[in-house]
């Protein structure tokens, strides 16, 4: 059996090259203003913004060797002011209250306690700092007290209450023999009464919290090792010396590794991150903490290799601003929290998976600049466009009026195709970024496709409205009639044969089987084509490489949905082949779980594109290889292109994801 190699045939060149130009760029609605290179450290972590009482804005960047302070100009350029030294730690978290900035570092054996930076005089010589290491009662320690050495995270509310999460201490405050204070549960201090030595006024439950958020006496703790977030009610006032904490309800999260939580202004919706590969940002209704309901979940649309990891999310008005490691900064429109829509993105790193890339993203400066931190590249100052979302809802019925379950609805829009599946009632609901904001579309006119097994797909053009909802219902015709092949032909280009065919419709059609013979009598199957394999409306193409025989015969076997089959006419393709072609194979094809990409030429770059040209996966390999396994479990069913970069140039093949 001859192997099938699909490269950029003349039919595909325009569509795929156009796709690379238009869809390969993933940054939109976030513009780089500055990325200073003078951080002074090799690795960075969190970032926070600070507005001085005189109106000047600052970026506070955590690093492994201290806390770096930058002043921002009115144009957003960052100038380094100073670095506050501290314990060597890969984890820092930063918040502020008044003219003070507070920092915690978390690494076993470190003992910075709570770093307090006095920004009253925010000049290089005027900034001062101290390390606050209070003695805290803890019945689990040998002396019933521990001195605060470190904490993983902190939050400060508008009243000046400081919430420490994941704190640890030692008996004499030297970092030796550390143990968790309150088992890592929340510690509450009041900075409003004493900014540099805030007294302890309360404790949460003795459950390790990785992160904490508080608004209007409601505290949400991300209890990472439980795999849940818990909503607590606080009893406090600005002058409280004692804060009581009561559990209102908990909810496990999708990947059971609850890392971060942030509520909206009305405290009835919370967004959650699980710091796991392939995890989504999840949105929950917490208006009744005893009956928490999941509303929606978000995954990056332009890179679905299953290895993306969300880190932190903040909420500002109708938008959530998230740091997503290898995916960079993502801005989500959550005006409809049951229909979360990505509306801006900026990638700070070339990585496509893992923990490299964007650690934090801060959106709350009065100037509107978004501050982002990259673990390798330090501070980024970005100028955002907070775009509207456009929503599309409706139902899908068949020609008898019956609702269709599991029909696929696709909106073809920049920078990616959005899709949804109808529920048991035949309804769907989805949204996309307002297209004119992306600089890739002049209007909100988009193409929408509805499809379902056993039905002819329906394609319509819809004009969406910013912040508005358009109702688009579909009626799909049942597939009942056989199809007719209107064209079937082939040409040779050296060792390569290009076979193309067209059909008048897809009614009653299941799939094609392309078959080849060198004698016109004994045919063997070389590839199966399903309707999703079309390169254009009702058009198919295959390119077979390294066909060394002078004469080849091809035929199609067409299968109907009822199982009947018939053969096409036989065509002849004569070639003049003198040079071999690199073995480039994809197996299995079609694929369900893992696609093995193999070549006899070494390659160091792999890219996966959808048929609309969206970049689904990109991997720059550290070393050249002849084999690359790609997990396809996160890809929707359909046809995709694989492109590898070799010494012979870029080679492209297609595969089908079942």
Question: How would you sum up this structure in a few lines?
Answer:
This protein has 658 residues and is mainly β. It has 1 helix and 53 strands. Among the domains are: 10-23 and 480-657, Sandwich (Immunoglobulin-like), CATH 2.60.40; 389-476, Sandwich (Immunoglobulin-like), CATH 2.60.40.10.
Q: What CATH first level of the domain at 10-23 and 480-657 would be assigned?
A: Mainly Beta
Give me the CATH fold name of the domain at 10-23 and 480-657. Immunoglobulin-like
Judged by helices, strands and strand pairing, the structural class is: mainly beta
Strand content: over 45%
Instruction: Calculate the terminal CA-CA distance, rounded to whole Å.
Output: 23 Å
What integer value in Å does the Rg equal?
Answer: 29 Å
What helical percentage do the residues reach?
Answer: under 10%
How many strands appear in the DSSP assignment? Answer: 53
- Name given to the CATH architecture of the domain at 10-23 and 480-657: Sandwich
- Arithmetic mean of pLDDT: 88
Question: What is the CATH H-level superfamily of the domain at 10-23 and 480-657?
Answer: Immunoglobulins
Summed up, the helix count is 1
Globally, the shape reads: elongated
Poorly predicted residue ranges = 1-25
Write the layout of secondary structure elements.
Blueprint: H1 10-23, E1 30-34, E2 44-51, E3 57-63, E4 66-72, E5 78-85, E6 92-97, E7 100-105, E8 114-118, E9 128-132, E10 135-137, E11 145-150, E12 153-156, E13 161-165, E14 168-170, E15 179-180, E16 187-190, E17 200-203, E18 211-215, E19 218-223, E20 228-235, E21 244-252, E22 258-263, E23 269-274, E24 281-285, E25 293-298, E26 312-316, E27 319-323, E28 329-333, E29 341-346, E30 358-362, E31 370-374, E32 378-384, E33 389-398, E34 408-412, E35 417-421, E36 427-433, E37 445-451, E38 458-463, E39 469-471, E40 474-476, E41 485-493, E42 496-503, E43 509-517, E44 524-529, E45 539-544, E46 551-560, E47 565-567, E48 571-574, E49 584-587, E50 594-610, E51 615-631, E52 638-646, E53 649-657
Parallel strand pairs: 33-39, 33-40
Antiparallel strand pairs: 1-32, 2-3, 3-4, 4-5, 6-7, 7-8, 8-9, 10-11, 11-14, 12-13, 13-16, 14-15, 16-17, 18-19, 19-20, 20-21, 22-23, 23-24, 24-25, 26-27, 27-28, 28-29, 30-31, 31-32, 33-36, 34-35, 34-37, 37-38, 41-42, 42-45, 43-44, 43-46, 46-47, 46-48, 49-50, 50-51, 50-52, 52-53
